[in-house]
Amino acid sequence: MGSAHSLPAEMRALADKTGFTSDQIEHLHRRFKQLSNDKPTLRKEHFDSVPDLEFNPIRCKIVQAFFDRRNLRQEEDGLADEINFEDFLTIMSYFRPIEPDMDEEQLQRFRTNKLKFLFHMYDSDHDGIITLQEYRKVVEELLSGNPHLEKGAARSIADGAMLEAASICVGQMVGPNQVYEGITFDDFLKIWRGIDIETKMHVRFLNMEPIAHCC
């Protein structure tokens, strides 16, 4: 994380940027080093050794989210080839729990940032809209582990959910020629209104459990 002389200032800067305490930053730094095999940067293949992600049906989207420049709050678009510890902390800050002393404005910003991160996972082509195809793909991936559900059923569920989202955002759709282009981020905020994303959005692989290395 830096030399002994620069560590306190660096720690304060990271705490101010991410909201983590110094103890949490130290813990995450150990986790980062464990994941990266003591390298200064993480690449996508380093996540191959995370047990909690191994059987996750949207594993690829979760890993990709760590390298999405939109989530890293960078001006460029696209995906980064690797991330450093500060980038890793930035991503992990989206999963922080609510702080008891947050006021209403802080809580709203906290919630919006979490939902923006989630929106980016759906918006795979980075155009600011979640299309039916993108939404369907995620739903099918989520349901792919269910042996009792056929692919056609997953597609129907995705279609129904998309129509429900459209009715929430633009009112009841009428007429055979009416086309709903997709979900914007403002639409996404409406859809998730009243859903407790603040406590539901978390990651398990922060734990320092032993990692099984791939052969």
TrEMBL record:
The lineage of its organism: Eukaryota, Metazoa, Chordata, Craniata, Vertebrata. It is a lipid-anchor. PROSITE patterns: EF_HAND_1, EF_HAND_2. One of its GO terms (cellular component) is ruffle membrane. It comes from Nothoprocta perdicaria (Chilean tinamou). SUPFAM superfamilies: EF-hand. Belongs to the calcineurin regulatory subunit family. CHP subfamily. Residues 110-145 form the EF-hand domain. This is Calcineurin B homologous protein 3. Keywords: Calcium, Cell membrane, Cell projection, Cytoplasm, Differentiation, Lipoprotein, Membrane, Metal-binding, Myristate, Nucleus, Protein kinase inhibitor. One of its GO terms (molecular function) is protein kinase inhibitor activity. PANTHER family: CALCINEURIN B HOMOLOGOUS PROTEIN 3 (PTHR46823). One of its GO terms (biological process) is cell differentiation. It is found in: Cell projection, Lamellipodium; Cell projection, Ruffle membrane; Cytoplasm; Membrane.
